[in-house]
Amino acid sequence: MAIKGKDIMKVLVVGGGGREHALCRKLAESPALTTLYAAPGNAGIAEVATCVPIKVEDIQALVAFATENAIDLVVIGPEVPLVLGLADRLRAINIPVFGPSQAAARLEGSKGFMKDVVAKAGIPTAWYQRFTDADAAKAFIREKGAPIVVKTDGLAAGKGVVVAMTLDEALTAVDKMMGEKIFGDAGNELVIEEFLDGEEASLFAICDGKTAVFAGAAQDHKRVGDGDTGPNTGGMGAYSPAPILTPALERSCMDLVFTPALRAMAEAGSPFIGILFAGLMITKDGPKLLEFNVRYGDPETQVLMARITNDLLPVLLAAATGDLGQSRLDWSNDAALVVVMAAKGYPEAYTKNTRIENLAEAAKVEGVSILHAGTQSGPAGAILAVGGRVLGITATGSTVEQAQHRAYQAIDLIHWPEGFCRRDIGWRAIGR
Predict the structure, then answer these.
(1) Sorting pLDDT into bands at 50, 70 and 90, what band is 2?
(2) Strands, E, within 209-347: which ranges?
């Protein structure tokens, strides 16, 4: 199969987490693909791609690799290289890239910028105010009362958000973010916003700067503990589809959220190319936007990729080259669910270099795929846990309940005493 007149496709995926493993597995199915690289990749990605030891923030080395290896398409997974301008550097040398420019990546890189764009575009969202002074932020919190939400303006690895149910919690969050700098410079500016009550869901669109194509819906679980207890994490599990997002609501959100956002970014001279991820709160007054992310979510990607039935590669290339046209994604009627296995202690301090065993046996469970995040290969082929979120046990089934059963069946076969997971992923969908 040829794409855009090319007989072969050499693709570089930037990143080394569960999201990138899911993307690599899906891209590896394409008949148009001849060579797949991942930088830096991980032990699981190495099964489907050639891993190259380049860190995601090493923009110069990534550009040099793409140039020297005549890469036809670069797919950027994490937000950090986008915020650092990797897409701009690649486009400047005519390498197609699926991911937004540095200017467009500010939709995630600066929560204050994102809120300003959203307000100007008329997208339903929470009221908010931006602060660079801690005393002013605290005065605003006291004026508005709790519950209230305190966010770092900059990137904080998905952890720079405190949903404060009391005034003391909110004021403490300001002290920690702005005073103690627990998230570094990300906390130099804060966004204080309205607490929205409802049910969260994630909606995705592939964008070429002008057009948005529906790219799936999911629901994730941010809290570390069962029953949505404990601190926020990068995500402990997800499932798709999300019953709260009916087909009618999905269509409505495409018009309410993505169309005005793309128009606003184009008018600002920063057309958005890549995946736009809308974090939504479905309230009694309808859907409201919590935040935009400028990349696929993790662990949502794991379940979205499990449900796409057509070739993803030409769709990503069409977006990267500004010509989505009639491109679309086709979806399985099956549900998909992923349970994240993390190192004990996460999201705080955790032990590294522990050994994970019996993955091959777990992968034999019907409908199950073992997706790697924080892993690397050890001596004699051993799989070692080197990150906080380490594995994504992904399963499909005719229902969310069946997918959940299969995922936990596989988890119970894995031997990793130093790991843990939530045991209730999918509870909202199953409760319905």
Answers:
(1) very low
(2) 212-220, 223-225, 229-232, 237-240, 273-283, 286-293, 335-343
Nearest alpha carbon to residue 370 among 399, 336, 410, 335: 410
Query: pLDDT band for position 5 (50/70/90)?
Result: very low
**Closest listed residue to residue 75, CA positions, set 370, 314, 403:** 314
What average pLDDT does the segment 355-365 reach? 97
What is the distance of C-alpha 96 from the center of its chain?
21
Question: Tokens for 15?
Answer: 């990143």
Residue 7 predicted with pLDDT over 60: no
Q: What is the DSSP letter of 331?
A: B
- Enumerate residues 6+ apart whose C-beta is below 8 A from 274: 76, 82, 87, 98, 99, 100, 104, 206, 207, 294, 295, 319
pLDDT of 290 above 60:
yes
Q: Which DSSP symbol is given to 233?
A: -
What's at 82, amino acid-wise? Answer: L
In this prediction, residue 156 has a pLDDT band, given cuts at 50, 70 and 90, of confident
Token duo for residue 291: 């935040």
By residue count, the chain amounts to: 432
Pick the closest to residue 154 from 218, 213, 107, 203 (CA basis).
Answer: 107
Query: What pLDDT score was predicted for residue 8?
Result: 65
| Two structure tokens written together for 45 | 């990605």
Query: Token pair of 389, please?
Result: 């979120």
Give kind and range of the element (H or E) at residue 313: helix 313-320
What domains appear along the chain, each with residue ranges and CATH number?
A: 9-98 (3.40.50.20), 127-194 (3.30.1490.20), 199-320 (3.30.470.20), 335-431 (3.90.600.10)
C-alpha to C-alpha distance for 343 and 348, rounded to whole angstroms: 10
Q: Rounded distance, CA 150 to CA 182, Å?
A: 14
